[in-house]
Amino acid sequence: MWATNVNRTVLTDIMCGAAPNISLYQIERAAQSKVAPNRDEVVILWHKKPNIVKDQPNIIITPDGMKRDVLAWLFTYFPQYRPITSITRVIEVSESDLLFEEVEKFRDDPFSEVLIDLIIAEARGNYLRLDRPIGKALVPYLATVSFCMAKSFKRSLCAKTQEFIFKRWLHTRMLIEQDLPFELYGELKNIWQLVLSLSVETTNVKSSLKTPYDLLTACTHMREGKELPLDLWEQLVEKKIDFYSPQERANLPREDRLKTITALLRSKEFNDIKNSHAKAFIAGYLVNSIASGTLGHLDLFFEIFKNIQNAHLWYALCSGLSRKPQTTKDMGALERRLFKELHVTWQVTDPPSADLSIDEFDIVCTEQNSNVDITSLFEGIIIVELWPGISTYVKLKQAKDSEQRELFEDIIKIKKSEINSIKKQVDGISRHLNEVIRSQESVEKNTYPPKGTHGSKNYYRKGKSRKP
Predict the structure, then answer these.
(1) Among 421, 346, 415, 417, which residue's Cα sits nearest to residue 387?
(2) Tens-place pLDDT, residues 90-127
(3) What b-and-e string marks burial along 14-53, b requiring 16 or more CB atoms within 10 Å of the CB?
(4) Measured between alpha carbons, how far is 385 from 396 in angstroms, rounded to an integer?
(5) What is the reported pTM?
(6) Domain ranges of the chain
């Protein structure tokens, strides 16, 4: 890569296609100390030796704490490039250190089933909760926080960076004022911490987990294909439910297993379990034993077991852990597509594929009062990059009724005046017609004898004329 340290004046010339007299130097890794900019400088990176007049920078590295200031400056003085982060990545020095150190790693492990099941459960759960069909589009699955976490997991990003990505995903939804069930996403965050703990060899995970340590032990048994031990079961259910052995009931018809588990999860003993995490895990574990590793009974948690919060997420985890490692040939169409999206190769110098970064999205929402107006790949949906190479889909907020009325207020006033004018004309015509009708009735009354008196002598004796 090629780099140069410049101030904002020179950066302006570069962005405008001028050819300032700058010195370029070649680097092997961007984490070297010589690329660190001073307070009033930025470092510009190109993948190959650039033609300054033609080639836009691949990456702009700012000092720590200055990224938003630089983005706001670019947003103000280069409106023709908005959004600037659809062309060039803008990151801080601390982010570049993490990025260049970790980008070469790629996790190759048997956890793809777990990752895909969590993505599917979150996406379908969001629609089942609203009683809406999810359809066949891929976007609802790529828009989940589980997809972003799965991407970071496959790239072996550290726990701190994964938590950072999780918070940024939540922030994008807050910017568009989307209502979020925070209890669900709090539980989902705990599940992803547990998945990370399962994937690494560590002896001190108990202190970092916010979920019960017993659940980590239970998931470890499931990952190894073992049944939960009796003492662990009693610990999770607080000795309130008799031991349930999925292996012993595997030969029973599926309908019988469904009836047994439904009665068990509706029982008073189950509802008396105080630990909400363990309660949701047990529900997911039992429903998974109906048809292990299929994720085919997700709708039960939104039809029958509505009172067990977030159990469908634990059901997805149990389903993924109990499934045997699969090749892409064994997967369904949706699973194969998600598998492909999770394994897309990526390099830090690749141009951004998103519409804009989370930092510029924040600026845009602030400037435009949450009514984002930018060119995007999909109508009403934008792709926001949370971390280099990890993006999410965001559905833009529609204009409110009051805002729409303001847009057409002048037209409405004109139409109202036209309608009032037409109404007056119609009323005038109506009055004229009524007068004509009354006049005609009067003429007929004075000209012709009443019905039944035609030819009667008495009628004409009273002085009635036969002529008008």
Answers:
(1) 346
(2) 999 888 877 777 655 555 566 788 999 999 999 999 99
(3) bbeeeeeeeeeeeeeebeeeebbbeeebbbbbbbeebebe
(4) 15
(5) 0.79
(6) 2-103+346-395, 112-342, 413-461
